[in-house]
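Good morning,

Attaching, inline, the backbone tokens for the sequence recovery test we're adding to the shared suite. The designed sequence is right after.
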């Protein structure tokens, strides 16, 4: 990380970016293991961009975010389970935004708007046992209403919630995670990730989460016996499950900096470096890895923009890598008719609880 990016924001969450709100909704009923997460921009929208690098993406309205095209700002981003079926959740968000009079003005009347709602989906079909249990417009509406009802600067629920309800990371349970970086300039860069990766988030040699390498503190290494037991259980799950399309990490990176659309697109692209640090391998044909950017424009960039932008770009990758780690740590295991998906804590226990002893061993008094 550059010297301009040493600290996390007060919540260490996407909502450290002023005006950004997050809402989750999950399906109810037997056989359901899926949901939707909505990131709601401030009134007036935010400059948005996207970078798609997975070989099997499922998206909506991503072409509208091309800097060469018409739409300048968007009001919401939808992240959803349900594969391509789940993209219907964006319809519920679109309808809600229209009711609020929010969207691209297309007529003379105040309510004559077309909300542009970019969305990306992940594959979780059948993980609760019912193949047809997937998000729809009502799920999207519930998630955006939850976001709108939240207080500004609210903490974001993590783990097995929203779009992360049925997410799986390799053989482990995935989920939703969020993190932020507060730059010395006052700019905040934050990420929210829904981790549902074909690759692994865990180093098979040590049991350490990949995203923890190179962090501010050394990672806590599980005891060898614990790691051996975890490897045996994961191998048995892998053999029983066989190959499957456990794909797609989708994310939103937000900042309060005033970025152009081209700069926002660059941020979406470099944020993928955070995925490459935390998931290995990444961007495969069976992944749909997609990163959106929202820039609210509250803080102008200084005249010498290159150093400032470099700090923002580096912070995007850092916050996304940490969001992946937090998603995996916060998830809880699920076992049912759709399969056995243990969590990292199921296999390794509360590694965070052991960090203090490890820090003291390395001379860190904090």
């Amino acid at each position: 990380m550059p010297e301009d990016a040493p600290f996390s924001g007060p919540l260490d969450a996407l909502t450290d970016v002023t005006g950004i709100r997050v809402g989750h909704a999950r399906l109810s009923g037997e056989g359901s293991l899926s949901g939707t997460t909505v990131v709601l921009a401030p009134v007036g929208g935010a400059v948005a961009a996207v970078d798609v690098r997975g070989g099997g993406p499922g998206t909506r309205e991503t072409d509208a975010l091309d800097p060469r095209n018409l739409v300048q700002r968007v009001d919401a981003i939808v992240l959803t389970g349900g594969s391509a079926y789940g993209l219907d959740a964006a319809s519920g968000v679109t309808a809600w935004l229209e009711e609020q009079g929010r969207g691209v003005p297309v007529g003379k009347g105040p309510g004559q708007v077309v909300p542009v709602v970019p969305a990306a989906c992940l594959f979780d079909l059948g993980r609760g046992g019912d193949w047809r249990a997937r998000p729809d417009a009502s799920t999207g509406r519930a998630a955006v209403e939850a976001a709108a009802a939240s207080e500004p600067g609210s903490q974001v629920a993590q783990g097995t919630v929203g779009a992360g309800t049925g997410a799986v990371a390799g053989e482990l349970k995935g989920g939703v995670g969020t993190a932020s970086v507060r730059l010395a300039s006052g700019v905040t860069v934050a990420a929210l990730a829904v981790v549902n990766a074909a690759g692994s988030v865990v180093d098979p040699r040590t049991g350490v989460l990949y995203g923890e390498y190179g962090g501010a503190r050394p990672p806590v290494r599980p005891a060898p016996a614990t790691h051996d037991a975890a490897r045996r259980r994961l191998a048995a799950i892998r053999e029983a499950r066989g190959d499957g399309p456990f794909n797609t990490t989708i994310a939103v990176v937000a900042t309060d900096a005033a970025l152009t659309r081209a700069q926002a697109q660059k941020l979406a692209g470099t944020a993928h470096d955070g995925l490459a640090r935390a998931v290995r391998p990444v961007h495969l044909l069976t992944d749909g890895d997609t990163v959106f950017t929202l820039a609210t424009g509250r803080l102008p960039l200084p005249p010498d923009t290159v150093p400032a932008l470099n700090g923002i770009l580096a912070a995007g990758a850092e916050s996304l890598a940490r969001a992946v780690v937090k998603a995996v740590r916060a998830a809880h295991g699920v076992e049912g008719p759709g399969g056995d998906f243990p969590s990292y804590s199921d296999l390794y226990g509360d590694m965070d609880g052991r960090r203090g002893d490890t820090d003291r061993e390395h001379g860190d008094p904090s």
